[in-house]
Amino acid sequence: MDQGLRTYLVVTGAYWGFTLTDGAIHMLVVLHFHNLGFSPLEIAFLFLFYEIFGIITNGVGGWIASHIGLNRTMIAGGFLQVVALGSLTVDPSWLSVAYVMTAMALSGIAKDLNKMSAKSSVKLVVPKGENADTRLFKWVAILTGSKNTLKGAGFFLGGLLLYLIGFRWAMGGMASVLFLVYLYAWWALPMGMGKAKAKAKFSQIFSKTREINILSGARYFLFGSRDVWFVVGLPVFLASVTGWNHIEVGSFLALWVVVYGFVQAGAPVLLRKGHHGRGPQGSSARNWALLLAVFPAGIAIALMSGLDPALSLIVGLFAFGAVFAINSAVHSYLILAYSDHDKVAMNVGFYYMANAAGRLTGTVLSGWVYQTQGLAGCLWWSTAFVLAAALISFALPKVPEEATPAAPTSS
Question: What global pTM score does this model have?
Answer without folding.
Answer: 0.68
